[in-house]
Amino acid sequence: MTKKVFTKPLIFFVLSLIFILVITFFEIKHLQKISVDFSTKVLLVGILTFNAVAITTLVFFTIRNLYKLYYEKRENIPGHRFKTKLTIIFIIFALIPSILLFVIASGLSTNFINKIFSPQIGEHLNLSMDIAQEVYDQMRNHALLIAEESAKGKIIGKLPNINIYSVNSHDDSSDLIKDAFNGKKGTEIISIDDGDLIRAAVPSSKGVIVAEIKVPHSFAFKVERLREFNEEYLKILSYREPLRINYIIILGFVTLMIVFTGLWFSLKISSSITTPIKELALATESLKAGDFNVQVKSRSNDEIGMLTESFNSMIIELNESRKSLHNAYLESDRGRLYLESIMSKIRSGVICLNNEGIIQTINQSAKEILKIGEDLKGKHYNELLEKMKSEELRRIVKAIQGKKNRNIQRQINLNIEGASLTLSVFISDIMDYNTNSSMGILVVFDDLTELIRAQKALAWQEVAKRIAHEIKNPLTPIKLSAERLIKKKQKGDSDFEQVFDNSIKIIINEVDALKRLVDEFSQFGKLPEVVKTMNNITEIINDIVLLYKGYKNISFNIKADEIPDISLDREQIRRAIINIIDNAIKAMNQSGSIEINILNNNGKILLSIADTGIGIKDEDRDRLFLPYFTGIKGGTGLGLAITHKIITDHGGTIKVNNNSEKGSIFIIELPVV
After folding, report:
1. pTM, whole model, 2 decimals?
2. Residue 195: domain span
């Protein structure tokens, strides 16, 4: 690992060194074409190399940062979209003015260099040098002409500004005079302290004639300065191309520097935003994985720092909430296990449905009563109804669908796997009292099959006792009358005819009483099936009251709510109510008042019939609806038993209480459904 870390900088150093050497090589090769001194060449190579390396470094770091953006996008690192957008915006805002600046500045620098190295300047310098050279040439020609004329003897004496003399010996003479002694004329320019001296030498018979013309110091100085300036200009002119290239490199460096600075600032700013966001995203993933102890380090005091602090606070609150929720879940689970334990122990069947009709809970008693398994849990209740053959249950379920108040209690008969069962079913909403909305339906039922069989057996035992008692009562006078007739006939008493007539009447009356008993019992045992139609209970009560208008000492007081039509057997309900009113009139000895109240109470109709008779003893209240039990003299004990059967066949209930003032009150409850 250490070797790998050490190798990367070494490779980078070697590549950089090779790059610098290559650039230096091409620069030296290019500068060889320029006639400048060595030190200047070294300086130019150094400047160009530095600028090239600087530009290359900026290009490298710019490409490196852009590649980092590309890598983050390819790896889908959180925050790369925002960082890319911000970087593009910064680059655009930095690149556009930088390019404009580069174009304008490069144009200005090129124009400036072109003006400095203008061809007109070179032409003027060349023209000036040509003029100076021409002046000197004319002066040289003039000096040569004077020397020639003097050698011919045409000039005698002195001329102004011209010195003419002859040289007879060439010892210690200049090359010009030596050449003249050899027969070669010529001229030369000699620099002296106060100017230039133009000398011409011409061979003659007397030796060498020399003519000298002195150039004024001011003119000679100006010509020298012009020559030096021309040489300096030619030297600087060789810098033109390197300077232009260097200016462009410097401008390119500045442009790239601006772009790189913008890119660096954009990455720095975006990183200051995206790094906390990335940390928040990673912390969110850790939170999603179940780590509720994760915290994000706040790096600033700005809005991002506030967001980080809020996130940390949220994590702490979530952790506390999770612990509370975990404790609540444990508590709920304990409650669920406790409830399941209770439900498994109770003997009533319990089924819970949600609002979509899906079975959520089935206790053990429900499975045993209905002979179903755990597989029905999570399925629709229609699959349960398919197993239970009961049209009555289907009508109840259909009737309560869509109703707000779904509380109902019924006794229903159904068939499961060929076995007939009688169940007492209670259906109720499971309410959420915080929102006052239904969470589902609770169905509780008990198997009354064996209980009803036992009750029927006990009832029939009681009926048998009552029938035996009722039959025994008329048989005794019949037996006594027959024995009396036998005795009178055997004795031959004179009043036999009278006793015979009386005994026959007694026997006939008692036989008629037996016949009535048999007829009523037969009627009780053969009540017709309930045939329901839509009727209004208030109208039925009003029709019944009309039957008792002949009782002058009986008053009726009827109070009724707005009652809807309900499904019932009109004739049977009418018969049941007539039985109650007949018993009330008998209990009042045909004198008193009867108050009838009809109320609509939460989907049920409550019908109360109160009289002002003698009332009912507490010990007789539980047996009042049993067959052949009566508290009225001469009663058969079947009227209220028939009434009770009619009401229960309609899915209702009937009970009796003592009236608060006097007499008794019968309360009948009938379902609206």
Report:
1. 0.38
2. 142-230
- Joined tokens for residue 239: 């810098």
Q: Which residues have CB under 8 Å from 270's CB, separation 6+? A: 79, 82, 83, 86, 87
Q: Is residue 610 part of a domain?
A: yes
With beta carbons less than 8 A apart as the criterion, state whether 639 and 524 touch: no
Question: Quick one: pLDDT at residue 596?
Answer: 92
From 569, 582, 575, 578, select the one nearest 670 (Cα to Cα): 569
Asked if residue 484 is part of any domain, the answer here is: yes
Domain end residue (candidates: 423, 447, 471)? 447
Q: Are 568 and 650 in contact (CB under 8 A)?
A: yes
Q: Tokens representing 541?
A: 């009560």
**Within its chain, how far is the Cα of 481 from the centroid?**
99
Residue 597's pLDDT band, with cuts at 50, 70 and 90, is very high
Query: Which tokens go with 214?
Result: 């002195």
The three-class DSSP label of residue 442 is: strand
> What whole-number distance in Å separates Cα of residue 69 and Cα of residue 75?
10
Taking the C-alpha atoms of residue 613 and residue 620, their distance in angstroms, rounded to an integer, is: 15
646 neighbors 573 (Cβ within 8 angstroms):
yes
- Residue-wise pLDDT tens digits, 492-540: 777 777 777 777 887 887 777 677 667 666 655 555 667 788 899 999 9
Cα–Cα distance for residue pair 132/119, rounded to 1 Å: 20
Is residue 257 in a domain?
yes
- The pLDDT tens digits of the residues spanning 387-426 come to 777 777 777 776 666 566 667 777 788 777 777 788 888 8
- Asked if 555 contacts 594 with a C-beta cutoff of 8 angstroms, the reply is yes
- The secondary structure of 61-115 as a DSSP string is HHHHHHHHHHHHHHTT-TTHHHHHHHHHHHHHHHHHHHHHHHHHHHHHHHHHHHH
